[in-house]
Design brief:
Elements (H helix, E strand, L loop, with lengths): L4 H16 L3 E3 L15 H16 L4 E5 L7 H5 L3 E5 L4 H14 L7 H11 L4 H14 L5 H15 L7 E6 L1
Parallel strand pairs: 1-2
Antiparallel strand pairs: 2-4, 3-4
Helix pairs in contact: 1-2, 4-5, 4-6, 5-7, 6-7
Length: 174
């Protein structure tokens, strides 16, 4: 809540990871490493600067995750030795999760035709889409049919407003 507190906590995290020889994982790193040219207040810049300094000095393994890769500061990207992009599920992967989700919810695994083709038409699915749909179905006490599950996945995609160029991924500083 105070200016400078985030920078202090970031520095402490890096010190503790170094001391313990631990892997440091920063999820949603775009909230810390947003392009400084987009900053609207001074503390946004100082936060990025502090993290860049800590990254430069850190000799351990740093993993960062984001789905807003394009919004990361260019100087931060230069500090990551590896950049791994995870695209949306391939149709065969989505089909495997579709069948697993139905089994997990107490349904029977459907035959591939026509469900596999209908699922492939959705595109842009992630494991997280299946996870949220399964949790929702559990919460509601539903035992969905393949049609129900397909409709729930379609609704999840529509609610997310997902566009094709967005992907999930990880960055690593070795």
């Amino acid at each position: 809540p105070y200016v400078g507190e985030t920078e202090q906590r970031l520095a402490r995290s890096f010190r503790e990871a170094s001391k313990l020889g631990a892997v440091l994982m920063l999820d949603e790193v775009d909230s810390f490493l947003r392009d400084r040219r987009l900053a609207q207040v001074h503390w946004e810049i100082s936060q990025v600067n502090e993290l860049l300094v800590q990254m430069e000095a850190f000799s351990g393994l740093l993993i960062a995750a984001t789905n807003l890769f394009a919004e990361l500061d260019a100087a931060a990207l230069r500090r990551f030795d590896l950049k791994v992009r995870f695209d949306y599920l391939r149709p065969d992967q989505a089909w495997g999760l579709f069948r697993a989700a139905l089994r997990e919810l107490g349904g029977r695994s459907p035959q591939p035709h026509p469900w596999q083709a209908r699922l492939a038409e959705l595109g842009q699915l992630t494991p997280g889409d299946f996870a949220v749909v399964v949790r929702r179905q559990r919460l509601l006490g539903n035992r969905p049919t393949p049609e129900d599950l397909l409709a729930a996945l379609r609704a999840e995609l529509e609610a997310s407003g997902r566009c094709a160029e967005r992907s999930i991924g990880f960055l690593a500083k070795l």
